[in-house]
Amino acid sequence: MLRTGAAALAVGAAVPLGLADTAWGAPTLSVDASADASASPSVGTAPSARLTLPAPTGPYPVGMVPLHLRDTSRPDPAAGPGRFRELMATVWYPARSADADAYPLAPWMTDGALRAFLADTGFALDPSLAPLTSGHQGAPVHRTGHRLPVVLFSHGSGSHRADHTVIAQELAGHGYAVVTVDHTYDAFTEFPDGTVSTPSDTVPVYPRDHAADARFLLDCVEGLAAGRNPDVDGRALPAGLLGGLDPDTVGMFGWSKGGTATALAMGADQRIRAGLAIDGPMIANPAPTTDLDRPFMMMTADFARAVNPAAQTFWTHLRGWRLDVQATGAVHSSYGDNMTLIPQAAKLLGLPDQQVRQMVGTLDPDRGIRIQQAYPLAFFDLHLRHRGHRLLDGPSRVFPEVVFHG
Description:
The chain is α/β, with parallel strands linked by helices and about 400 residues long. The protein has helices at about 5-10, 110-120, 165-175, 205-225, 255-270, 310-315, 340-350, 355-360, 365-385; strands at about 60-75, 85-95, 105, 130-135, 150-155, 175-180, 190, 195, 245-255, 270-280, 295-300, 320-325, 400-405.
């Protein structure tokens, strides 16, 4: 079941994306850069058929491959004796231009996970209307002689690894390998044998469990860099992926509980060189209070430092480069694919504009998507690639909605 309300926030969780309306009898749908103002297509209009995601703005087409992973260092008591924690992940990466179009575009979520998600939330949307991504499944990796910098992603409570696909494929289109993961028992996920796992009320998953999953992903990244295939089932990987990742150039971002997990993972693992929390509550037991001397950025809304003492306390433990920005008009669910998918779904379902604003705030959807494409990319470019971005120097005339908090 999805966790909602004050009880969820108290443990650092968050309402996943959704279309909250008493008429639906369920909490919402968790359909949880370049600073070029003309880069993204309109995202607020209703599609003629399926929902759509905005295309990434980078110079490379995007490839993707799912991975079935098993962490043999962590037993899974819920799965039975002798069983270990299993995860589904996706690697997004720049694809080779000459070959990408020969590979099919991947769906936003697998069919089994999507159907479970829609059934659990009570959201009456035809699964066939779910969007496709820009990721060409299995396409060869674009190689330039340099290994790809890596960014990990951790989702929010009761959500799934697709909920920030816009950011993941934006980074991939600009030359990053992005590894997203479903945090089993806190996610809607489908394994290769068709088994579907949903968020559990009986198996607690805390921000530190998300962080432990991220550290395991780092081990898998190191394996891929060394030429080892971590997929449990031994499925073939895209050409160029083995040996193509740089385990010494790794960043991480997360939304909501995943933002808290990003702070925790950085505090526990020096391999993560830069972290971005997207409206992370920074609430955990114990709280993320380790001093960090590596770059950290916060993109806030409901959990801004001015109203969230936990975030303010965390801020005081940032000893290196730090930045706190907030998009005017954004709410917690404004960040992520919600910003584009909810307005489209609302038009299909005839939901009033007032309800949409309650779900994703008053920030214009087009502007919100472009902010999500621009600021994470600028942050990781600066701190993983050492490419200067004036976008992070202060308020921008291109993005006047983004406020810098000192």
